[in-house]
Design brief:
alpha/beta; 2 domains; 6-stranded mixed β-sheet; about 20% helix; about 25% strand; globular; binds flavin-adenine dinucleotide
Length: about 150
């Protein structure tokens, strides 16, 4: 029985992990991957202390920071069920492993919808991007195609 399970290894989950480790909680960070959406970012210009840093590089630094604490991690499995049990929660992963915890932080973020067109996968982070607010400034003065428009634009 863990005191805390953190689901998700993006910036939110890794930050929670550092807080948990510093408070010496018996905690587990469980995630499909580390870095989350930031790995898809061309470059980050709004993280204070860095004028520009590639998303993957920033996430490597986050991982290093988590790694300096004796915190248990399970990177790879996908949590596909969470059940309420008497004194907490039970998390079950895709491989059938069950983990019990008194408290749970869900930091599973989100995934943008894919177009599923030829070349998309190869050009992800190299011209194909999924966050206009985040990456738009990097395309200033360039010809771009915008696919889709959110409902709020109506
Ligand atoms: C293309 C792009 C560019 C961006 N650029 C910027 C930028 O320049 N500046 C900025 O501030 N923000 C930027 N963002 C936004 C930023 O990436 C997100 O706000 C941030 O990543 C959210 O962090 P998070 O930890 O909440 O979630 P995520 O990054 O979504 O991480 C969620 C984590 O949970 C894991 N997970 C999900 N479901 C499960 C499950 N069932 N079981 C186990 N693990 C699971 C995922 O594998 C992932 O590791 C950008 C986003 C995109 C897509």
């Amino acid at each position: 029985m863990y005191e805390l399970i953190i689901l998700g290894g993006g910036p939110a989950g890794m930050t929670a992990a550092v807080y948990a480790a510093r408070k010496q909680l018996n905690a587990l960070l469980l995630s499909k991957d580390t870095g989350g959406q930031v790995n898809w970012t061309l470059g980050v210009e709004n993280y204070m202390g860095y004028q520009f840093i590639e998303g993957s590089e920033l996430m490597e630094k986050f991982e290093e920071q988590v790694g300096q604490f004796p915190l248990e991690t399970e990177i790879g499995p996908e949590a596909n069920q969470v059940r309420k049990i008497d004194d907490g929660f039970e998390v079950e992963t895709s491989d059938g492993t069950k983990y019990q915890t008194k408290a749970l932080i869900v930091a599973t973020g989100k995934r943008p919808r894919q177009l599923n067109v030829a070349g998309e996968e190869k050009l992800k982070g190299r011209g194909v991007t999924y966050c206009s607010i985040c990456d738009g400034p990097m395309f200033t003065g360039k010809r771009v195609a915008v696919i889709g428009g959110c409902n709020r634009w109506r």
